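Task: fold both queries, return tokens.
Query 1:
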Amino acid sequence: SILYVSLHRYDEGNFFPGSGAPNEVGSGPGEGFNINIAWTGGLDPPMGDVEYLTAFRTVIMPAANEFDPEIVLVSAGFDAVEGHDPPLGGYKVTAKCFGHLTKQLLKLADGRVVLALEGGHDLTAICDASEACINALLGNELEPLPEDIVHQIPNMNAIASLKKTTEIQSKYWKSVEPYSVPVDCALAESQKREREETETVSAMASLSVDVEQCFPQESSR
């Protein structure tokens, strides 16, 4: 009767405390009611707003809506907020993002959401993230996230982590589908790379023309 969800740095069990693997789904009557979004890949690059928003969109909110809870209890740990040194997390999630994640949770259980301050090691990060979450709980207008963050594709390590989690959890939740990069996003990213490559080639061609103009060839006699 309880659905437990956790997002945490895991690094294949090499980051403290080493538990919370994607395949730890619960046992007996509780099998399938434990969801671990276990980020891997260390800090190359670190997880940030894009990765956490994608996890909410593809795993947490679909499963939570399907579960249809009576109340949502959040162990509000802020180790992932930017400002923590690598041994303490090293991720780059903004305080602003935590506010938006809280706003999403308010769509569940008719808004019956309780946040309990749980962790974090940087006082400024804890204060900023707590303030953002409280603003969301109060229903205050939140500062919008940058447009590029909303449409950006997660980093490759996050994609690998989400693929593993969704592959496992899709067996238990109809609303959770195996993760794949949306075609339109992949196309946009591909087009962006093509534009950058074209601009680079054009710049090099322009440089070549400039050099030739500086050293004109002798006219044929």
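Query 1 returned. Query 2:
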Amino acid sequence: MAGYTRKDEESATLRSDELKRKKRIKLAIYIAIFAVFQVIVITVFGLVVMRAKSPKLRLSNDIEFQNLKVVNSGQSSPSFDMSFSTQVRVKNSNFGPYKFDNTTAIFTYGGATIGQVVIPKGKAGLKSTKKINVVVNLSSSQLPNTANLGSELTSGTLTLSSTAKMTGKVELMLIMKKKKSANMDCTITMDVNEKKLRSLECK
């Protein structure tokens, strides 16, 4: 009986050791799978979430004229004065807010500045668009040369340009801040007879 007992104990010990070995192997496999999963998650997180993209800065095509005065006395002294309300939109596609500084948008005709508007500093939330209401005042009195203005006003259209460079920082996971700028380059074509926007193209 003692011999059988000893053999039973040895067999039980072997089974126990085998079970422990299998458990250690399973544990090692689980740890390896978890480690690989963590590497994949961190890699995807780094490539997708933590990658800061440049926000987009655009004028809205929702332009409402408050005042538009056009004088076209032949080719001698044509002029215009206008004011309109619109929106400036800051589109942030990042997984973190974009905090931007005060920005000046310049409006030009034929390369000459005819007015500007200040876009106040603010914040565009993660994956969202910040809409900022502004009122723009423009005047041809600042033009050094109005040689081509008369013919354009006679045709009933007025083509302007608007440019701006916005600077700011994208905040990621509350621990990282990356400097990013947003550029605006828009061409605005207005119908001066109907006092409405004809077209707006932004790059």
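Both queries returned. Flag for query 2: The chain has two helices and eleven strands.
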